[in-house]
Structure formats: C-alpha cells, structure tokens
C-alpha cells in the first residue's frame, strides 16, 4: 500500500452499511446457525485514494467526522487492516448488448475472480448471469475455479433482467457465517446497466441492496464512442450503495495522435480492431479497471458507530454526511441507510 503525504489532494470513497435494529431477522449462516449482531450499529468501510487513484494509508480515526441525520457520531471502532474478508457477487450481463466486446469482458471477469478469490476462507464469491432471466450459476464458495469454469462457457444472447439479478444476489444465495461484519458484502456488475426484462424496479433493488448491506461496483461494457441509457442506472446504484463505476473502454483513444485526422475505410481509427495496438489499449483499460475495483474492495478502513435512533417507521431513511480534516478533499459516500426492518 502506498504511503502518501497528507499534503496530496485526495479522494475519499466511503461505503456505509448498517445493521438494522432488533426488528430485523438475525443473519443466517450457510449452516443455518443464527448469527447474533449488535443492533443499531453502522459499519463504515472506507477507501481513500489520491487524485491519481492511488490508495492512501496514513489516516487515523481522528481524521474522519460522521454525521447521522446532521448529528455528529462517535467513532467506536477503527481499523485499517488490508485484505479484510469479503463475499463478492459477480453479476454478468449476458444480453445481446455485450456481444461486441464479450471476450474482452469475459477475460476481465476472470481476472477479477482470480484477484478476489485467492483460495483462502476469508474470501468467498458467487456468480449470477442475466439475460431474459436472472440465474444463480455458482452459489457462495471459496473455490475460484468453480466460477472460472462457468464463465468460460458463457455466451451472450437475449434481453436483460438486470434488476432481477441484483434482487437475486441480495436474497437468494447461501450466506457465510459472520456476515455482514466479517466478511462484508460486495457486488460487482459487468454490464452496461440497461434493463428490459425485470419484474423488479430500480428503486426496489436499491432499497433491497441498502437493507442487505451490499456495496455495488460496476465495470461498464459500453464501447468507446457509444452511449448507454443504462449508465445512469449503474451510477445511481453504485452511488446509493457506496461503490463506483469503472469504464475500461472510455479512454481508449485519449492519447492517440491523429484519431480524428487519420482517414481509413473503417472510419477514422488510429487503432483498428484486430491490430496489436488496439488489443494493447484494450488490455491496458481492463487492467486499470480490474486493479481499481479489486484494490478498493480489499484496501479499506473500517469504522463503526452506534447512532441513537429510537423507534421509527420501517420506511424511514436516515441521511449520512461525512467530513474529512484535509484540504482539497473530495468525499464520496452512500446517501444513507434504513435502520428498521420492513
């Protein structure tokens, strides 16, 4: 982990999850044991990077201020250990929209699986695909090769039940003992965010993700020069839950001289599909995004606090605000949480 001076302008990425009040059901493990968790405690995984995306590791608890419905809270637990346990769900868009760069994102997903599931009990994962329907292909496991085997056989085609896939990820898989404290819950979407086949709505799945303490990241499959209406969905889902979107193909031609001035029969492309230069730029974009997501998931501060909430309506949504004692800082965090079970 990079040790960086506090004089750097940094970006702090905050991920908030909350263990609801006693009205909620206790979390079940895969063996059907009841896991007792302290009620009314908000868990705050925190990622801090500088403006170049490098992780910052020298912050202390005193550097953070957390406000719950505008009331500052006392940080009761602080940790900055690396490689903290997580359960990662991989959601793969198998609709027709992924055909153009399918092999590229198939390889990217394999890299993410190998990075985030190293074969130790601390890290678990599961695989869900979605086209006309959402399907749980591999249930929660520590064995990366089970996911790899399925991913290698997948082929895109059909519609996109994106929202139903998120709902399935939050409700229909085996749980690991200790969730959501250790391990934490993360969801990685590989897709463009469009939906044309779900029974659930975007608002419904945002709420179910927040209630189930899931942080959503996304790797957009939108090709350079194209736009997707689904991008707004990805941004809203990730911001609401504390994650972010990576765009591996977005800057494919940024540093290419003559991109718009080099004529060719295929169009004005300095890098032509099928050439070594094109493949190299694709690989660089994928590597950057895989490293960004994997690094953020495993390199985080963990904070906890217990707000005085009292009783309330199951639909009550509490806002969160975060401040950091550093100048020129951009702070990103989820909008808030639901403290009561529906």
What does this protein structure show overall?
This protein has 342 residues and is α/β, with parallel strands linked by helices. It folds into two domains: 10-82 and 300-337, Immunoglobulin-like, CATH 2.60.40; 86-298, von Willebrand factor, type A domain (Rossmann fold), CATH 3.40.50.410. The chain has six helices and 18 strands. Strands 1, 2, 5, 8, 15 and 17 form a six-stranded mixed beta sheet that branches. Strand 12 (184-191), helix 4 (202-211) and strand 13 (214-220) form a beta-alpha-beta unit. Helix 3 packs parallel to helix 4 and helix 4 runs parallel beside helix 5 (231-241). It is globular, with a radius of gyration of 20 Å. The two termini are 40 Å apart.
